[in-house]
Amino acid sequence: MNKARRNPFNIAAMHGALILYTLIALFPVFVIVINSFKSRKAIFREPLALPDADTFSMIGYQTVMKQGDFFLYFQNSMIVTVASLFFILLFGAMAAFALSEYRFKGNTLMGLYLALGIMIPIRIGTVAILDMMVATGLVNSLMALILVYTAQGLPLAVFILSEFMRQVSDDLKNAGRIDGLSEYTIFFRLVLPLVRPAMATVAVFNMIPIWNDLWFPLILAPAEETKTLTLGSQVFIGQFVTDWNAVLSALSMAILPVMVLYVIFSRQLIRGITSGAVK
Amino acid sequence: MTALTLSNVCKSFGQVDVLKNIDLTVEENEFVVFVGPSGCGKSTLLRVIAGLEDASSGTVEIDGQQVNDVPPAKRGIAMVFQSYALYPHLTVRGNMVLGLKQAGHPKDEIERRIAEASRMLSLEPYLDRRPAELSGGQRQRVAIGRAIVRNPKLFLFDEPLSNLDAALRLNTRVEIANLHRQLDASMIYVTHDQTEAMTLADKIVVLRDGQVEQIGSPMELYNDPANRFVAEFIGSPAMNFVPADMIGGNKGTFVGIRPEYAQLGQTGQINGTVIHVEKLGADTNAMINIGTDKPFTVRAFGQHDVLPGAEVGISFDQAKVLSFGEDGKRL
Questions:
Q1: Per CATH, is A64-278 categorized as 3.50.50.60?
Q2: In chain A, which among 142-201 make CB contacts under 8 A with chain B?
Q3: What is the mean pLDDT of the segment spanning B244-265?
Q4: What number is the ipTM of this complex?
Q5: Residues A126 and A215 sit within 8 Å (Cβ to Cβ)
């Protein structure tokens, strides 16, 4: 450890900066959560006060539970997010394996083509996508969302994973071949476990935008039975009157699953990010 | 029966020819070492034999059968890699079992082979550990064990000792030699270290730029090298090359004198100035500037007091001198 890092003043400054950033980052979340437990009047009178005996109210949560089918929305969001992540990771990893492992004509070109999607936002194609979904009869189905999100996530997944798969030792894969493992077994049993940190990184980077997305659910699947959580919460935001209790309660609940998934992936995520950075 | 026959094997990656017309036979129970500087194609040749790379042309026969289109697992070979290449998520036992399970051997047969291999390599205490919990030498033994349990006709070793430290390297070298005596199998061993090649091989194949320079027993290569490259590569310290006209030969040709065949004295066939002395205890290496590009090395047995800067003469037995033409070929 170098001298600068042992200096108590530097340590204090470093931790001070980190704590300050943490507070700034957590503050909006904190405000949302405390206000979701307050009565409507209390939210506007003193937005930053903690709920006390007078102002405590579960009215927001009650509204959310009563109005709309909140659990269905929740379930839809979960299905869309998990299925999209599964397909992104599966197809992304397979494409990355092929690009990094096999020599074939147009390998580099194919890699570039697959990475092109990183630079072009998928929303530019919204009208065409809607046309296609109408033509195939997928409008107002969760499948439409899963397909779009998979397409949206694949470029970055292929890009990151192929970089990581190049680092997996050739000898290991060859040892597997000599032991008679099929290419699929080598991929699933040898390579995938070794790039797990990278997979977690890709999963987290894709999970949050999918969970929070309003655009595609609104356009492709606005029907009651396919509404996602983000879209479902919009019923409480009106042009003239907004039911803040309900909005804040819905948002507080929407944070939970993302947090749970993040905790599951976080250790792998940090390894994934730093292993790329320090090597 | 021959264990391996290569005829006219060529390999190119795009425009680059890595292997050019390699012909080679390996007899049953023979220990063959491929040796050469890095980038000479020796590892590629091994991978072509293993089936991890396809030969661009030519045929590979193992045990009398052409195997060009046979996948690696069905060729009856086993390979030990430089980086060990153990499966990180499996225990030592798991590493050794995997290939046998894939091949569909019965359970008691697998148990018997594992027991035998771990006894031979003293791996019994480690069978339930993972590779991460083993030292480098133990990992290398597991990699060798994984090869042994497959009971192959042909072992392939790809620089198996280069990741080990010097002391361990010597021990493992002896172990591999013992293994070869016990196992009755042919072995092909790739290395860039000529000492490993000389000590292990029945037959050495010297490669340069994808071509075979010479094939022969260690002593054949040492005593009777086909060209200047082989002469320089085999033997340590390397052979000295002197323009022949310095000692009364034809202009343009060279003579090669091994450091151990030359003696130091007051006067000799060649005279020069000592520039550096290495005392190793058992012998003393003196480097002498004789006016050529490279200093002339004399390896004197025993301990000698030679000081840098001294004027010395080098004498040698004319019968032990090898002559090389301008193109590097032996005359």
A1: no
A2: 169, 171-172, 174-181, 190, 193-194
A3: 89
A4: 0.83
A5: yes
